[in-house]
Amino acid sequence: MKIGVPKEILPGETRVAASPDSVKKFTALGVEMLIESGAGEAASISDEMLEDAGARIVPDAAALYAEADMIFKVGGPCCNGNGAVDELAMMKPDAILIGLLNPLYRRDQAEAYAKHGLTSFAMELIPRISRAQSMDALSSQSNISGYKAVIDAAETFGKILPMMMTAAGTIVPARVLVLGAGVAGLQAIATAHRLGAIVSAFDVRPAVKEQVESLGATFIEVENADSESAETAGGYAREMGADYLQRQADLIHETLKKQDICITTAQIPGKQAPVLITEAMVKDMKNGSVIVDLATETGGNCELSERDAVVVKHGVTIIGYANYPARVPTDTSSLYARNLYNFISPMIDGESGSIAIDWDDEVIKGALLTRGGSVVNAALTEKNA
């Protein structure tokens, strides 16, 4: 079997779906790894490093797609006019495609994969069960995003984060609010706390209170009679009712007035990100404050955020990079490559190097997007039934 790893061509995508470590591991299983020349450059992974690990470097994407039985991507392939090059058209019709395909937002592309005859797996649909934790690409990427968001905020903020006692006087610590205590939010809390800030956090799910407090932050919550329904079976936040949302907005507004930095991470799978910070709230923040909005790819948590831009509104700097994992490509690529290996390696026969997929496996069924010319994942078929 030949696994192909092309160079990502969407603007701003610096990650690559392979690392020297993953190449070595796949090669040991009898798999031939084909990697497009220059695929790892933006992640500081050279062709030589990959070649030394056992990969075969191919000159261009067309040559790679013509040979590859399985294709590893970071983002979905360009097709249906979403890129200058139609990557999908170059793939073999019976190939297997694996990547962060974002099917809940890009149903049309999932339909295109099916029409082309691909068997495809979306890494973000891997079920959140204990056995699949090492395959959870959303978590591995979000973890780094939460860290980087705090670093970017600290660099932009015009003061230091920790308390500092000097001969000239005492500098008070910065106050950081994190909205959303998922993987990214928890890492943001931990990072801000390590840097010496006074940290508080908000989440609609009361179940995360203990995690927030264990990281040294204060948990801010809205009294809610329906707290048990605030979390989906998969561990994500659920949309809440109008009364709760109004009380939530009032609480966030009052809290933001006292903060120096706010990191927002709230997202709902398959939907636009909830707006948690309105223009009126921004107006009432301290002059020189910083907001880092990690949800701009799906609309943003701040009403004034601009995708892939840093803007200053009402004296507040708002950072809105849509692809935060791509801002730390060396580590995020390495982690993503491990996720792919952990997902695929159980399907590979160690003696022959051929693939044998257990279609009844819970993880396989959860991630499977298209097969046999159809979109087959329940998250899409049931929604459109």
Can you walk through the features of this model?
The model has no long low-confidence stretch (mean pLDDT 93). The protein contains 13 helices and 17 strands. The chain is globular. The two termini are 36 Å apart. The protein folds into 2 domains: 2-125 and 349-379, NAD(P)-binding Rossmann-like Domain (Rossmann fold); 144-327, Rossmann fold (3-Layer(aba) Sandwich). With 385 residues, the protein is α/β, with parallel strands linked by helices. The strands form 3 sheets. The chain has an 8-stranded mixed sheet, with helices on both faces. Strands 11-10-9-12-13-15-14 form a 7-stranded mixed sheet, sandwiched between helices.
SSE topology:
Blueprint: E1 2-5, H1 20-28, E2 32-36, H2 47-52, E3 56-58, H3 61-67, E4 70-75, H4 87-90, E5 96-100, H5 107-116, E6 119-122, H6 137-156, E7 164-166, E8 169-171, E9 175-179, H7 183-194, E10 198-202, H8 209-214, E11 218-220, H9 242-256, E12 261-264, H10 279-283, E13 290-293, E14 310-313, E15 316-319, H11 329-344, H12 362-367, E16 368-371, E17 374-375, H13 378-381
Parallel strand pairs: 1-2, 1-4, 2-3, 4-5, 5-6, 9-10, 9-12, 10-11, 12-13, 13-15
Antiparallel strand pairs: 6-16, 7-8, 14-15, 16-17
Condensed summary:
The protein is of the alpha/beta class. Helices cover 31% and strands 18% of the residues.
Oligomer: single chain
Q: Low-confidence stretches at least 5 residues in length (pLDDT < 50)?
A: none
Q: Could you say which structural class the secondary elements and strand pairing correspond to? A: alpha/beta
Can you list the strand order of the major beta sheet?
3-2-1-4-5-6-16-17
- The shape is globular
DSSP helix fraction: 25-40%
CATH topology of the largest domain: Rossmann fold
| Element string (H = helix, E = strand) | EHEHEHEHEHEHEEEHEHEHEHEEEHHEEH
Q: DSSP helix count?
A: 13
CATH architecture of the largest domain: 3-Layer(aba) Sandwich
Number of strands: 17
Radius of gyration: 22 Å
